[in-house]
User: Which sequence fits this backbone?
């Protein structure tokens, strides 16, 4: 469960793995911080924002102001950060905010699995 000191979920994979937008929105920030490394923030409307951190050095593929669609590649997985220590393995920390409060991102993974149910086979 996400907590204030680490409000997201770390997802590991190979460096350079595409990071996809989890919902339609507008990129509000692409930046670097010692704690988050290279990161992207997306505003999805209705008080929802997501953040994708620790991206590859050259792995941000969108700019502030860009409209993004769910499933669109917005960055590449990396291991950037400096404080409190450099991240060792490639990963992305995924966070979700609603009206300025961090919420558990796992709730949105589960919901998104059912957002587009597969069609029933013909009989």
Assistant:
């Amino acid at each position: 469960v996400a907590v204030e000191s680490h409000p997201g979920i770390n997802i590991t994979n190979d460096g350079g793995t595409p990071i996809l937008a989890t919902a339609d929105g507008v990129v509000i920030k692409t930046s670097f911080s010692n704690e988050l490394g290279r990161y992207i923030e997306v505003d999805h409307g209705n008080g929802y924002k997501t953040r994708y951190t620790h991206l590859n050095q050259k792995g941000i593929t969108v700019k502030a102001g860009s409209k993004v669609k769910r499933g669109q590649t917005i960055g590449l997985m990396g291991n950037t950060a400096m404080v409190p220590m450099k991240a060792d393995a490639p990963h992305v920390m995924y966070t979700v905010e609603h009206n300025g409060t961090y919420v558990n991102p796992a709730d949105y993974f589960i919901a998104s699995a059912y957002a587009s149910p597969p069609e029933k086979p013909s009989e």
Q: What stands out?
A: The chain has a mean pLDDT of 83. Helices lie at 106-113. The chain is about 5% helix and 45% strand. Residues 106-113 form the longest helix (8 residues).
